[in-house]
Each structure stands twice: as structure tokens, then as C-alpha cells.
Design goal:
- The complex is a heterodimer of chains A (about 600) and B (about 250).
- Chain A is of the alpha+beta class.
- Chain A folds into three domains: about 5-230 and about 385-450, 3-Layer(bba) Sandwich (FAD/NAD(P)-binding domain), CATH 3.50.50; about 235-380, Flavocytochrome C3, Chain A, domain 1; about 460-565, Fumarate reductase/succinate dehydrogenase flavoprotein-like, C-terminal domain (Methane Monooxygenase Hydroxylase, Chain G, domain 1, Up-down Bundle), CATH 1.20.58.100.
- Helix content of chain A is about 35%, strand content about 15%.
- Chain A has helices spanning about 20-30, 65-75, 85-105, 135-150, 215-225, 255, 285-295, 310-320, 345-350, 355-365, 420-440, 450-465, 470-485, 495-510, 525-545, 595-605, and strands spanning about 5-15, 35, 55, 120, 130, 155, 160-165, 170-180, 185-195, 225-230, 235-240, 260-265, 330-335, 375-380, 385, 400, 570-575, 580-590.
- The N and C termini of chain A lie far apart (about 60 Å).
- By secondary structure, chain B is α+β, with helices and mostly antiparallel strands.
- Chain B folds into two domains: about 1-100, Beta-grasp domain (Ubiquitin-like (UB roll), Roll), CATH 3.10.20; about 105-245, Alpha-helical ferredoxin (Fumarate Reductase Iron-sulfur Protein, Chain B, domain 2).
- Chain B is about 35% helix and about 15% strand.
- Chain B has helices at about 30-40, 105-110, 135-145, 150-155, 155-160, 170-180, 190-195, 205-210, 220-235, 235-245; strands spanning about 1-10, 15-25, 60-65, 70, 85-90, 95-100, 100.
- In chain B, the strands form two sheets. A five-stranded mixed beta sheet of chain B has the order 2-1-5-3-4. In chain B, strands 6-7 form a two-stranded antiparallel sheet.
- Classes of the chains: A alpha+beta (about 600), B alpha+beta (about 250).
- Chains A and B meet through helix 3, helix 4 and helix 10 of A and helix 1, helix 2 and helix 3 of B.
- Bound molecules: flavin-adenine dinucleotide, iron/sulfur cluster (2 copies) and FE2/S2 (inorganic) cluster.
- One iron/sulfur cluster (SF4) binds near residues 148, 149, 174, 213 and 214 of chain B.
Chain lengths: ~600, ~250
């Protein structure tokens, strides 16, 4: 580690999306010295792309809302395999976390009486999403960023962590390289918080940016932490399918919330054909009632386009496979039709969905006020992640914490829209708080120089192999195809076994990838490093999905299409064995306290 | 499929740089960022560029395309003349790092010199503030900013006159504006705007407004109202007197 610079902090936060920024703020406020590392520039993390809003039961728009209803909605959405304690904390603390953002400069849309306005979203019983038009993520990240910069936090932008460091089994910091020059840095810290976001880049079609390579999941896994619920992946039903360059980019659920309908190539509104029994009582019986719901008629029930994301995604998948898709392999999402109902529909659509209007106008040359969009499912969010303690967000490794999308628990088998942004601020805060506390009670760990040297040597190996080695982009693409085709929306035993064989072959190929040139800003080299993470995590996804022989939430098996009660009693956990192979086990869900069970029962009616 | 030529700026290791032509296939619906990525994947794996969202939301992929500051991910090839080479170069106002990537850290340092929000007490014990949507509207316009820094790139005070120590640029003038207009803020930034942040350097050429991908009315809604406040505070005799007595 001769040429590696060393920085020393009390608390090291890896990731500067909503969760990482909120953790850094809390740790700094507790008096800790804080280092914050991110792969991009500050303010560009994936959180910036979130659109719809953040869920918090402030009851500004409907005073029947409360933490209890939010808690019950989250558990129902997660099909009861959530960490109930996290769902409880989240529902109770989200309102305070959202309100404090206003004191830090956020400016949310207002209700007529001047409070924060809240909108309806799939799976939430009452209007609950605090929002700013359709750019809520930008508001969140900018507010946290602009608050954090005054707190003396040391920010290391465009740095990528390649390995976590351990001292006697506890967290000791991390090794990273900077994109500018490709040099290595050691970050020594008493406590480390992972807030690295999602894993979308394991799939061919995704709404995630290049950053979503599951680094935190893989770093923790390699360091010996447990991953949980990895089989649960959210495919958002509506991603763009054309032009090819934007395939996967998200089309907000808000389009359907404002009256957008799904149609196949025969012009049929196919969502009415398949409404699950347990949702029938809450779903409109005909298009007319669906429209009344959109127009805020409190007696009308929601249109079937607003059923849970996993269900809508599967219905679209089915239409496409049956040959009733749109020209570019999706189905039609039509908001323009509302001109039959509203005289000023063009203006209305532009006002309600400004960034969707622009996105299609500028990227697809299509006017959504006049023509239907073509859309299809896109890998959007991973419910699974690093196992953490509900209250402190500490992982199984002492001094290592995780928050946000890279952690698991709150969402169970399926995340409700809007619950991620609130998750980031509720659990980001807790992770920062407990990490600072841990740092206060523990000394500065020793740096394992052998591990540092090995991490550096391994990551430079692709240069030794040069251009004669495997092309890293090609390996990544092959992995994305494998996951998309074999561990996608609809899964089977045989296909997943095939995927595992392929993943293991890809691991072998990865040990042969080569790159040429200088280390400065070399994206081929970066890809070579990222693949390792994607492969470890893809393997954990496939292994967990094989283990869950039922269908639930974001995990659907054609060979086991039903939900099985027994599988609702445990979570599936993967861990790296001593020989480097992946170990899978079933972790019983602790019994839910009587009071919380009662809350769930009350809300069922 | 059609071919097009992209004339991309490549920096050289010792400093300096030159345009280099790359021919690549183009297809319907592509944007400049796609072409750059294709060149990267097929011909120049070490070509450096920044990007994240590919949807005009993060402000990472700023560059000068045919001499105009734009987002690469929002510039469709069918809006350009492909019979001639398309030039793609980094933002020229900021120091080069590599190829299309520039050092924009000055912007992050400038922001820290601006007085942060200082909220009045909330309107309810739970932290609720009340204000009307119309008061939110004018602030929200500025908060749409994605920090692409294209306006900073085009502003002649920075680009040609290099007044980095005297002038904070249009991005941070509207950052000030959104704080000044925030209904719950109580801090006063006018003195700083005049003395530290150089609002007087802006001569309202409106070049910044023209390049803003978020279509923010930087000058009309942000800079001009701020200038008016500064003028009435410091140059209008009556308010000046009142302010001195306060
Ligand atoms: C288009 C879109 C719309 C969405 N809309 C909503 C919505 O309306 N409501 C909602 O609740 N949720 C929404 N989501 C989901 C939500 O945005 C994400 O789940 C959430 O933003 C994740 O935040 P995070 O802080 O966990 O991570 P991210 O915001 O993804 O940030 C991860 C950070 O970690 C850093 N990082 C990663 N790896 C490393 C490494 N190796 N070294 C150093 N740094 C690293 C990255 O650079 C980045 O700074 C949406 C998602 C998408 C894609
Ligand atoms: S209007 Fe002012 S800030 Fe904008 S480009 Fe011109 S001089 Fe610069
Ligand atoms: S004001 Fe517009 S041009 Fe300037 S940084 Fe913000 S989004 Fe970019
Ligand atoms: S990549 Fe985000 S704005 Fe272009």
C-alpha cells in the first residue's frame, strides 16, 4: 500500500444518495468526523431520478391517515415477509423526517390550506406521497446536499470503493480508487455506513443508471455479512421501450394515476381481464368507475391499471408473449384518450406530468397528449439487500451499517411506490446516529495492509492481461442477458439452474478480462471491476429464487404459481461460505407483537 | 444503417488536446450520448465522459455540441446536420480533466460561500409550515435546476473574463434567488450579493437563460429581481436610510 493515501474518520459513509447523505448529516451532527464517498459528482446519485414522491402519513389530505394505516399498507404490499419492526419505525418516523426537510429548504407542493400536498399512489390507502411535481427525488437530494455542505463533512466525489476492510471481524473502513487518476486511497474509520443503492445493472432492461451495480451488496457479502430477500425484485410495469437507447427509462406510475390506460395491439384494455380475487373488492368494475376514481370520486374504486406493480408487469409480459404487443415489443399506455372526457386535456396532461411530456417529446419524438406511448417492464428496484438490525441498521459485522436500497427488510416481497424515499431518510438518519455512537465507543481500528495490497493488485490485474483478455463490456452484457432471460419476471427451476451454470462460467471469464491504456477515467477498467459485484449478487438472486418454491410479490414462479403459507414464515438468507461458495438458509421471521398484529387486522376491513 | 462522423475532443496526457474524427453507425432515435458510448465501446474504450440518468435529470453529461452548450443525453441526432461532422467538446469554461470531463469543483466551493437557509419558527409544534402554492411556485422554478453548469459555461463573465473570484455565475445567482424567495427563510443575502458574489458583473445578456435545459427564466425571474432588491437597498436613498436606522 506504498502509494495509497490514507484518510481517517470516525464515520465513513459510502454512497451519497438520499440514504448516504442523511446518514452523513446525522453522524456529523452527533459530533463525529465524517467522510463521504460517491462514484459520481455530488447530487447526481440515482435518488435524483425519483419522480412520484415520498410516503409519510402526515394526513394532510385525508385525516383518516395515520402511522397505523401506513404500517398496514406496507405489510400488505410486502406480503407479510417484511421486517415488521422496520415497517413500524418507518411509518412512525417518516412524517417528522419529511417535515424537517422543509426547514432545510425543500419546497413541496402545497394543499389549499398551505400544508405539504400529498398524492395517491398504488397500494397506499390514502393520499400519502409528499411530492414536488414529478421531480421529488431531485428535491430530496438537493435539499440534503445543500444541508450537508455546511457541516464539515469531507466529500470524496468520483471515488469507487472496491473492498471493505476488517479488523478482528469488525468494520475498519475501505479501499477506493478515484476516477480522475485511477489512484488508490485507504479510508480508515471506526464505523462504516453502506448506502450504495440498487442492482439494476444486473439486468438488460433497467431504470437504474450505470451506478446501480450492487457494489454495497457485494462488498458486504464478501466481508461476511448476510444478504436477505434477494429473490424479490421489482419490475416496474412501465419503462420506455423505444428508441433503443432509452429502453428501460422509467415512465412514472403517475401517468396511470392521472387516467392512463393499458391496451394491447387489438385495442383491448386487457387489465380488466385479470384481477386477482383479493383485490376485486377494491377494483373498479368498468372503465366508467375507473375514470370516476381518477377524478377523485371517493366512492369509486381504482382502475385495474393501478393494481400492484408485480401483477401489472406480469400481465404486460403475458400480452407481449402472446403476440399482442406493440411494434417495439411493449404494450400501449394511453393518456391521450382523456380528451374524450376533458375539454382541456392537452393542458391538463402537460401540467400534471411535465417531465413525462418532455421525456417523450425530446427522446421519442412523441406527443403524449396526442398519441399512446409504448411501454414495457423494466428492472427498477431490489427489495433484497444486506440484513440489518431494525433499530440501528447495523449488519452482522460490528461497526458496519447499511441503509437505503442496499439494505433489506422494510419492503418484504414488494415495495410500495414512495416508500423508498421515506425509507432513505428514516433509516439513513438512524444509520448515521448509531454509527456515530459506535464510533464514540470504539477506538480506531488497525488497517490490514495485506488486504489493501490484495484489493489493489486484484483490481489492477485486467491491465496485466491487456487487450488480449476478455472484453469486460461483453461479459457484462452476457450477464445482463442471462439474468433478463432466465431470472426475470417469470421464473422456473430449469431456467434458474441454467442461469447459475452460466453465472459460474461468467465468473471464470471475468478472471480473464483485460483492458488497455491509462488508468485515468477509464470506463472499460471500471466495468471490469464492477462485474465482480454484479456476478456475486446475481448468484445470490438466483440461489434465493430457487429456494423460494412459491410465488409472492416480486418473485413469480411458473412452476409454483401460488403463494404458500409456510413460505410466509421465513426469509431467505445468503452468505459466503469459507470456501467462497454461496450458502443459502431460511431465517424464521420473529413473531409479530400482538399490538402490531391487531393493527394489521383492523386495517383489513 | 447510416454513418455519421463525430469530431470528439481528446486530451493528451501531457496537457492540451485535439479533435479526433470517429465514424460510427447511427440509427433512429439516437442521442449524442449514445454515439459517444458507441465510439467508446467500439473504438476508444478509454474515452472519458460523464453521465448518469440518460434522461436529462441529473445534469452530468454537459458538453459543447457543434459549439453549443447542451446535455448530450437530450440532443437527438435528428436535430443535427449529420452530413457534416458533429463536434463534441468539453465545457470550455472549466479546467479540463480528460476528454469530455472537466473539473467543475469550483461550483461546489462557491455554493458553500452562500448563506444557508435560516428558517423562521414552524407554524405548529410538529414542524409544519404553511404557505400558499403561489409562493412555492416561484421558488420551485429555480429548484428545478439540475446543476449541469451549462449556464456557468456560457456566461461571458466566467468564460471570457475569468472572474471566478469575483462572480458566482448564473447558477448561484438563482440559488440565492430561491433562498431569498423561500417563504420561511429569514436570512439576508443582499450585502453578499453585492460585495462578495458580484451580481453587478451580470449585464443581462440572457445567454444563460437560452442554454438552460430546464427552461428556467434565470435572468427575468431570478437575476433581475435580485438586482432590483440590491439597487433599492443600497442605491435608493430612502430605503438606505431606513435600513441604517434598523
Ligand atoms: C426512475 C426512478 C424513479 C423512482 N421514483 C421513486 C419515487 O417516486 N418514490 C420512491 O420512494 N422511490 C422511487 N424510486 C426508487 C428510489 O429512487 C431509490 O430506491 C433510491 O433513490 C435509492 O437511494 P439510495 O440512497 O439507497 O441510493 P442511490 O441514490 O442509488 O445512491 C447510491 C450512492 O452510492 C454510491 N456508490 C455506489 N457504489 C459505490 C462504491 N462502490 N463506492 C462509492 N460509492 C458508491 C453512488 O455513487 C451513489 O452516490 C425511483 C427509482 C427510479 C430509478
Ligand atoms: S445574463 Fe448575466 S449571468 Fe446570464 S450569461 Fe449574461 S452576464 Fe452571465
Ligand atoms: S440553471 Fe439551468 S443551465 Fe444553470 S445549472 Fe441549473 S439547470 Fe443547468
Ligand atoms: S445523463 Fe443525466 S442529464 Fe444527461
Amino acid at each position: 500500500m506504498a502509494d495509497a493515501t490514507t484518510y481517517t474518520y470516525d464515520v465513513l459513509v459510502i454512497g451519497a444518495g438520499g440514504a448516504g447523505l442523511r446518514a452523513a448529516i446525522e453522524a456529523a451532527n452527533a459530533g463525529a468526523s465524517v467522510g463521504l464517498i460517491c462514484k459520481s459528482l455530488l447530487g447526481k446519485a440515482h435518488t435524483v431520478m425519483a419522480e412520484g414522491g415520498m410516503a409519510a402519513a402526515m394526513a394532510n389530505n385525508d385525516d383518516r391517515d395515520s402511522w397505523k394505516v401506513h404500517f398496514a399498507d406496507t405489510m400488505r404490499g410486502g406480503q407479510y415477509v417484511n421486517n415488521w419492526r422496520m415497517a413500524e419505525i418507518h411509518a412512525k418516523e417518516a412524517p417528522d423526517r419529511v417535515r424537517e426537510l422543509e426547514a432545510w429548504g425543500a419546497v413541496f407542493d402545497r394543499t389549499p390550506d398551505g400544508r405539504i400536498n400529498q398524492r395517491n399512489f398504488g397500494g397506499h390507502r390514502y393520499p400519502r406521497l409528499a411530492h414536488v411535481g414529478d421531480r421529488t427525488g431531485l428535491e430530496l437530494i438537493r435539499t440534503l446536499q445543500d444541508h450537508a455542505i455546511y457541516l464539515g463533512i469531507a466529500v470524496h466525489m468520483e471515488h469507487t470503493v472496491i473492498e471493505l476492510l476488517l479488523d478482528g471481524g469488525g468494520a475498519a473502513g475501505a479501499v477506493a480508487y478515484d476516477r480522475d487518476r485511477g489512484t488508490f486511497h485507504v479510508f480508515a474509520a471506526k464505523a462504516t455506513v453502506l448506502a450504495t443503492g440498487g442492482a439494476g445493472r444486473a439486468y438488460k432492461v433497467t431504470s437504474n443508471s450505470w451506478e446501480g451495480t450492487a457494489d454495497g451488496h457485494a462488498l458486504a457479502y464478501r466481508a461476511g455479512a448476510e444478504l436477505q430477500d434477494m429473490e424479490f425484485i421489482q419490475f416496474h410495469p412501465t419503462g420506455m421501450v423505444w428508441p433503443p437507447s432509452v429502453k428501460g427509462i422509467l415512465v412514472t406510475e403517475g401517468v396511470r394515476g392521472e387516467g392512463g390506460i393499458l391496451k394491447n395491439s387489438e385495442g383491448r384494455r386487457f387489465m380488466f381481464d385479470d384481477i386477482p380475487d383479493n383485490y376485486k373488492p377494491q377494483t373498479a368494475s368498468d372503465p366508467e368507475e375507473g375514470w370516476r376514481y381518477v377524478m377523485n370520486d371517493k366512492n369509486a374504486r381504482r382502475p385495474p391499471e393501478l393494481l400492484t406493480r408485480d401483477h401489472v408487469a406480469r400481465c404486460i409480459n403475458r400480452e407481449v408473449k402472446a403476440g399482442r404487443g406493440s411494434p417495439h415489443g411493449g404494450v400501449f399506455l394511453d393518456i391521450a384518450w382523456i380528451k374524450e372526457k376533458l375539454p382541456n386535456s392537452e393542458e391538463h396532461i402537460k401540467r400534471k406530468l411535465p417531465s413525462m411530456y418532455h421525456q417523450f417529446k425530446e427522446l421519442a419524438d412523441l406527443d403524449i397528449t396526442k398519441e399512446p406511448m409504448e411501454i414495457g417492464p423494466t428492472m427498477h428496484y431490489i427489495m433484497g439487500g444486506i440484513s440489518v438490525d431494525a433499530d440501528s441498521q447495523e449488519t452482522r459485522i460490528p461497526g458496519l451499517f447499511a441503509a437505503g436500497e442496499c439494505a433489506s427488510g422494510i419492503n418484504g416481497a414488494n415495495r410500495l411506490g414512495g416508500n423508498s424515499l421515506s425509507d432513505l431518510i428514516v433509516f439513513g438518519k438512524r444509520a448515521g446516529e448509531y454509527a456515530a455512537k459506535f464510533a464514540q465507543q470504539n477506538g480506531q481500528p488497525r488497517i490490514d495492509t495485506a488486504r489493501v495490497d490484495k484489493a489493489i493488485k486484484d483490481s489492477l490485474a485486467p491491465f496485466d492481461r491487456g487487450s488480449k483478455g476478455e472484453n469486460p463490456y461483453k461479459v457484462q452484457q452476457d450477464l445482463q442477458d442471462t439474468m433478463h432471460n432466465l431470472v426475470g419476471i417469470v421464473r422456473t427451476e430449469a431456467e434458474m439452474r441454467e442461469a447459475l451454470t452460466k453465472i459460474r462460467a461468467l465468473k471464470e471469464r471475468t478472471s480473464r478480462v483485460g483492458v488497455e491504456g491509462h488508468r485515468e477515467y477509464h470506463s472499460g477498467w471500471h466495468t471490469a471491476i464492477d462485474i465482480r459485484n454484479l456476478l456475486d449478487v446475481s448468484e445470490a438472486i438466483a440461489v434465493s429464487a430457487l429456494e423460494r418454491k412459491e410465488s409472492r410479490g416480486g418473485h413469480f414462479r411458473e412452476d409454483y404459481p401460488d403463494k404458500v403459507a409456510e413460505f410466509g414464515t421465513f426469509n431467505i438468507v445468503t452468505k459466503r461460505g469459507a470456501d467462497g461458495s454461496v450458502q443459502v438458509s431460511r431465517l424464521p421471521i420473529p413473531p409479530i407483537p400482538q399490538e402490531l398484529q391487531q393493527v394489521i387486522e383492523e386495517q383489513k376491513s | 444503417m447510416a454513418q455519421a462522423t463525430f469530431r470528439i475532443w481528446r486530451t493528451q496526457p501531457g496537457g492540451g488536446g485535439a479533435f479526433q474524427d470517429y465514424q460510427t453507425e447511427v440509427s433512429e432515435g439516437m442521442v449524442v450520448l449514445d454515439a459517444v458510448h458507441r465510439v467508446q465501446a467500439e473504438q476508444a474504450p478509454d474515452l472519458a465522459c460523464r453521465w448518469n440518468c440518460k434522461a436529462g435529470k441529473c445534469g452530468s453529461c454537459s458538453a459543447e455540441i457543434n459549439g453549443r452548450p447542451r446535455l448530450m443525453c437530450m440532443t437527438r441526432l435528428n436535430s443535427l446536420n449529420l452530413n457534416e461532422p458533429v463536434t463534441v467538446e468539453p465545457m470550455r469554461t472549466f479546467p479540463p480533466i480528460k476528454d469530455l470531463v472537466t473539473d467543475v469543483s469550483w461550483n461546489f466551493r462557491v455554493k458553500k460561500t452562500i448563506r444557508k437557509i435560516t428558517p423562521r419558527p414552524p407554524d405548529a409544534p410538529d414542524g409544519t409550515y404553511r404557505f400558499a402554492q403561489r409562493d412555492a411556485d416561484r421558488v420551485q422554478e429555480f429548484r428545478k435546476c439540475i446543476e449541469c453548469f451549462l449556464c456557468q459555461d456560457v456566461c461571458h463573465v466566467l468564460r471570457d473574463h475569468r472572474e471566478f473570484n469575483e462572480f458566482i455565475g448564473p447558477r448561484f445567482l438563482i440559488y440565492n434567488a430561491q433562498l431569498e424567495m423561500n417563504p420561511i427563510d429569514t436570512a439576508d443575502r443582499l450585502q453578499d450579493l453585492k460585495d462578495k458574489h458580484g451580481i453587478g458583473y451580470c449585464n443581462i445578456t440572457k445567454c444563460c437563460t437560452k442554454v438552460c435545459p430546464e427552461h428556467i427564466h434565470i435572468t427575468d425571474n431570478g437575476i433581475i429581481p435580485l438586482k432590483e432588491r440590491v439597487v433599492s437597498r443600497f442605491y435608493d436613498p430612502v430605503t438606505r436610510l431606513l435600513h441604517m436606522l434598523k
